[in-house]
Amino acid sequence: MGQGGVPLFYLQALKGIGFTFKDLFNDGSLFWSWVANGMGAGKTRVEAGGEQTIAIAGGTLGEWSDSQNNCPKISIAPCAYPCEIVTKITSLTLGDECQAGLIFSNYPHGFGSDVWFGFVRRKHPTSPTTPFDGIAVVTSDGAVNFSLANTTLPVWFKMRLGQNAYQSTQIQWYYSYDGMNYTHAFSSGWAQFSRTAIGISLAVMNSADGVSTNAISCGFDYFTMKPKSIN
User: Fold this and answer.
1) Whole-number mean pLDDT of the chain?
2) Which domains does the chain have, with CATH numbers?
């Protein structure tokens, strides 16, 4: 139902009667299954040239933390349980305290309780001499659960939600540099989430420290999700 609406999230997906969804971001408009939010002055979403580009201008705050949620993002419901979700990042411009990528979270969005998987560059106040620039799994409290200092593009991110059964509470996170050979990065649980209120988002954020407002722009080449039995 597009930007600003509430989509028909969940459909028949709750018990694995899922469907396959693929968006190549090549028709110039946001497909109705997505919901765009967090947009406003200095925050943009443009679909052109086969990319979905989400950006924040320098000087504009875009944060998703335990205390606020105003970063630009597009969100969609999982297609099934269990399911497999893949996105590809093809272009990226980001400054210190910025991050971009794939989010698993509650929906409608609140504060906290989200899990980031994406490129992260940060120079955290508690460790100013060790800026991190690479791939990471980061939670809303700022904890880095996995990190790999590498900024090679393109990069694919894969999330497997659920493990062999609807009752599963596992999320598996993977990355790849060719879209075929994936490396397992991290496993996390999601018992705190309601299965009937889950969102998968593509998003950017520029204030991991709650203060910085550097420019960030991320181009997503495509997004896919499909029912998947995970072994």
Assistant:
1) 78
2) 13-227 (2.60.120.200)
